[in-house]
# Entry
Amino acid sequence: MPRYFTSEHEWIEVEGSSATIGITDHAQEQLGDIVFVEVPGPGTTLAKGAEAAVVESVKAASDVYSPVSGTVSEGNAALADEPSLVNSAAEGEGWFFKIELSDPGELSDLMDEAAYKDFLVELG
Amino acid sequence: MRYLPLNESDRSEMLAAIGAASIEELFADVHPSVLLDKPIEGLPLHASEMAVERHMEALASRNMAAGQGPFFLGAGAYRHHVPALVDHLIQRGEFLTAYTPYQPEIAQGTLQMLFEFQSQVARLYGCEIANASMYDGSTATWEAVTMARRITKRDKALLADGLHPHYAANIRTMARFTRDRIVHSAPSLDPDCGLDALAASIDEETSCIVVQYPDVLGRLPDLAVVAEAAHAKGALLVAVVTEPVTLGALATPGELGADIVVGEGQSLGVGLQFGGPYLGLFACREKHVRHMPGRLCGQTTDVEGKPGYVLTLSTREQHIRREKATSNICTNSGLCALAFSIHMTLLGDKGLTALAAENHRLAIMAADRLAALDGVRLVNDTFFNEFCIELPVDARPVVRELAEEGVLAGVALSRLFPGAPQLASGLLVAVTETTTPEDIEMLARGLEEKLA
Amino acid sequence: MNANSSGWRPAMPADEETVYPAGSTHTGNRALMVEEPLIFEISNSLNCGVDLPEPEPGRPSRLGNLARDRQLGLPGLSQPEAVRHYTRLSRQNYAIDCGIFPLGSCTMKHNPRLNEQVARLKGFADVHPLQPEGSVQGALAVIDELAHWLVTLTGMHSVAMSPKAGAHGELCGILCIRAALEARGEMREVVLVPESAHGTNPATAAFAGYRVETIPATADGRIDLGALRQRLGTDVAALMITNPNTCGLFERDMVAISEAVHAVGGYVYCDGANFNAIVGRVRPGDLGVDAMHINLHKTFSTPHGGGGPGSGPVVLSEALAPFAPLPIVRRTAEGTLTLIEEETAEADAPESFGRMTAFHGQMGMFTRALSYMLSHGADGLRQVSGDAVLNANYVLRSLEDVLDAPYAHAGPCMHEALFSDAKVAEGISTLDIAKGLIDEGFHPMTMYFPLVVHGAMLVEPTETESKATLDQFIAAMRSVAGRANDGDTSLLQAPLHAPRRRLDETGAARKPVLVWSEVSQFERVE
# Structure
């Protein structure tokens, strides 16, 4: 399954017309211990770039923007009780939400894994 | 200059170390056209401690202190006896001259006190959690209205007519800018709190209803009735308590179904102080904690496993969330919270209950005595330590005349509700444990004389 | 996702072997440092510290059906128990009375005790806010006299006295601006704030319904006038600026900045948190400011009290003065002082935006601040700002070789010196330096603010520190910074000598325990 990345440190894994979205391992490392995650509920429609979720550490709160447009099919309920999943498995069990893509064409604007790695190197 | 430790030799040495010729040189970034080169005119020069003391004493002597004679004012600020220990303890420099506990390892005193304070407020209000305080009861109330909007995503707030008009005015001021819709009207001199009509007007757009308990006329609204009506429509009940001593006798707003309980804490430990600083109390359900304004102190452990306290859930606040914060509040009323907490600790359940009973006993004595005067009607059929009487004449001039004779008779409703002529004859009378039977007699005789 | 650029990440030391060898006493106490339980743990329902008549059962009541029928669970203590509890708690606090408290932007200066005594005079402390005007002429005179000082020191037109704290004052100022724009029939949408602004600024603007946009800074830490001019337009309601700014620098272009904002019909709000740097030397009115709150607890020495109460009167330009909130104190033709409240507002203050607090503001802070002003006088207040700036520059020049000082090249600082963690070894951060200072007996500086500097350390000594104290602080800071630069990882364990070691803030936020309960106590004992 193809996995894409954004310059805002989100990842998105696409399977057919649906996709799973989370924040990257680099992002969780920058934030430190995650204490709270608020994910969108099913049925929420999101435009590309819209605020979709909130992730908080003790001293920082960050908005997570949807890298694509679509309708949310599921938020990761496990994060409510165990926000530390984002630290331990940001790009796995610590996913944020699943979305039905309304415009798969938007994916072409995103980075692949190699491009994201280069991007991180550039950031220093 | 007794508060400035640098002397001329220090200043020269330090300037030499910096490499500047004068203090003025350090202000080089200020354009000379706006940099003053001598003390500002129109203000006096420095003064000795004794001279300042005399000046301030002269100003103080031009006020009539509440303790100078019979005193019956309330309406959101109450005169209670504060044990001497309270003021002694809050003047300890380690409390008085500390800052917001940003370094918890060396601020456990303040933090533990705040945790105790939050716990006391939550229990007093019958709520699950409370914050570390707000500026005062009135600002806490509009913060509650904005919090209800965030939770319900609705923008219409219904204010019971018994809400303190200054509290309502605050809410209206803020709503003018936030575009919340506020529904509120003045009360009438009626024993009924008008809750049925209020409950009937709750609809699907209502974010909250705001009910003061006891209300501004001293009446006791049954919050349970409106709580049910509000919850049926998905709205929240905000209860406002301006006199915390009330809860030594009455059921708590939380147990009656209020979702957010706010109020004024001034009665305990803080004193009258001409209106400030006071102490905003704020409590709610735990599930709403992330929508709460203000600082929160939480319990945790240190690396050795010892219990300790920290400010927590700070991501709600302005210093982190900036324009998305739940409120712009920064400083709270820390020292007033300490005073409240110490006074509450000296009382405990037992003392608070006894204090409330004494207030209520004296209030009944006063209400019965005044109601027996010719032409005077007691408006309330229920009350705690404050009630409203209707005079056969406008109350305002009576209050002014009695003040000149040394009797502070209460608050004329026309001061609070200038636009409501139906209330002009209303006089609000508060009675606390500081009121003596002699005071009540002097008020009764004074009123009798003015009404004759 | 926007990353955490400030670098602030509280962390517990992971290294188990260096855990403090508990100074093992039977009690856990360490001589003067005594472990103190919660009031809930030491009291019982019978203890009480006041004497009140026992309520007689069956006495008449007018409580209707609302009488309480259960215990509240509030702990009580006798007076000797209470005095010990709170005295022991107090000893776990650092305070200005104990030593330098160099929190940048917070202005922790000495709190004169004369002010405390004055505030407690019965004629001030025991006066009700709704007493008839004739019985409170002295209180109104305090407000009037303090207003005169504030207006004169700032060169402004008038002052709104009721705001309860700095952030409340900001709200007051922004609401005046919005009311003034509405009176002109304009609905502007944007408030501009510089990157380095206090968090309260954007929070306030957003509350008042404005969209917040950020203006970048120049390499020397000041607002970029070019970028500001480019952004300004008729959609801009106000610029919220802090001067001196939160990097401790005076905005050299302030007059031009104000002119540019005024040229598009906008207003200039100045965050007055740093007025203590310029009091008696620069009048904000001369800089084109339209509104500025003054933190009486910063510049004018009223005590911070462990987090308030503050007091935030707002000085206003002539353009904004008519919109000031109620109540307003005014002198009548007969020379008495009167309060303009709702009753007479229509005639006497028709454009006031209304009330923003129940009563008249922080009288208890007014009396303290006025005592402070009278003590210093116009000459002393000049010395106050001079010494505050001298002390900060002394710290800046004494530390700039061991700590990165991002704007030190740009000239003198004002009342606070800004450093960063740029020279600090990998793996050690600003937080560790702060905790190291605690072990050296000092309260740390402000950490991670302003946000524009990574790992910021903002040191504000204030004018009430002696040279000897500054020299001690500098020596301690040089030692700790040296250890940090050398990669001394023992700093990660600091503090070792405070009443508590590092606290688990992550755990506190993940599973918040905000009130005491029998259950939480049980868990802790486990």
